Amino acid sequence: MNSTQLLGDAMFIFVNKTVMIPVNMVITILGILNNIVTIVVFIRLASTDTMTISLTALAVSDLLFFCLTLPNFIISALVSSGIQVLWSVDLKSLQYIGFVWQRPLFHKISITITMFVSCERSLCVVKPFLVKRIFTRRRVIAVLVAIFFSLTALFMPVYVSGGLVKEQTINGTHSVLTMNLAPERALAEQIVHLGSGFSLVVASQIIIVISTIVMAEGLRRHQRFRKGASSTDQRLQKKRTELDLQALSDTDNCRNRVVPIAVGSKDNPGVPVVSGDSHTKVKAFKTDQKGVAKNPSITNSYQRSEELSRQQKDCDKKDVRKKEVQTSMPILNDPSSKEHRLIKTVFTLAVMHVVLNSPVLIHYIYYYIEPEFRVNLRLGNLYLLSTDIAASLHCLNGPPDISVGDSNIFSEHELTLPSTDMPQALRRNDIISNLFSSLNECDLRKDYIGNYRSQKTFTAIEGLIG
Predict the structure, then answer these.
(1) Which of 29, 84, 225, 240 has the CA that lies 20 to 30 A from 335?
(2) Domain of residue 53, CATH code
(3) How many CB atoms lie within 10 A of CB 392?
(4) pLDDT at 253
(5) Rounded to an integer, what distance in angstroms lies between the CA atom of residue 249 and that of residue 414?
(6) 3-class secondary structure, 258
(7) Which residue range is the domain that position 115 belongs to?
């Protein structure tokens, strides 16, 4: 290193050796294990959902980033300790050519995929059926492949403008692989910094913030709609209770009803045999000498017995029906706390992304402002330290990036927010009917939907389903 470094070699080595290298080694190892587990889980799910595909690609990109970060910090530890493992290779040259510019490639790929996932999630909250039509499985795979290849092509000027060549040592005893940079190397680095560095980081910050605002606003609308649904459900619950009481009353009346049989017994044919409650007043029928009732509505005991049996069966059916109504009616809980937690989670993840990527943005801004902020120049050590800090923050930002696009985060809202996996042929009326398909009573379902149509909350349904 140059002796005129603003951050001296001794200070740079001390900071690297005591702080950066141990912390980054731990973060990198945990990041590798975390992304391996994530990829295995997604593979075992065997899901063809577009969000699962995007999150798998994000986990693969982060895993490659961590795999390239680990040897970079190992080499830094060896250089800081003064250990020369490979006498035929200059470790600093190997670090710069082999790992310094490979890590930013997968860092930028992860940022781009995160932007893509964030846009899809925010649009899923606002226009769920539009998302299903736009983000098809084939299109998502094509976009992810295009992201990988386009960013790799953007980094190619840096990769082809430098390499390792053999040079003889000063005493001439053996040759060493050292760094060899082309004259166009500085221009290639500026192109890559401008195309994939500053512009991409700024765009990611803006898009993530806008997507978060749109998502939060959609969730707030959803929360207001759910509150309206809860108040309407209370009226439905009250009506259901009234119907249950009425059914119970009908059943009791049916069981206590007296059915007179105007046919005398064998011993006393003139006395009517009465079936029913003994406490109920019975009006006796006049009979002739043969014991046959003069009432024309009752012809014989057999027919009247059938009538009694039919009434008893009707009562039993009402009992069964009442139990079905009680078990089939949905009882919705107040979901306001779930919405609050979801909004806070989304907001927290977005803030983490912005905060952890802000030092990277400052790094690129200072790179363009200060010409000395380069390797082997006056601010070379500060440049390398800033690069390591930015890489460490990206390691911390990996798990939140995956959480931002977690498709299960919206599973609590499938009652009022239609899932993106529902068929496209469903129309508004079909969606509304699907929301209340668990209601078995047709009259109650019609009344429930009618209440929604008569309220302002129906506007929220129209907005949610597009």
Answers:
(1) 240
(2) 1.20.1070.10
(3) 19
(4) 56
(5) 37
(6) coil
(7) 9-232+336-423
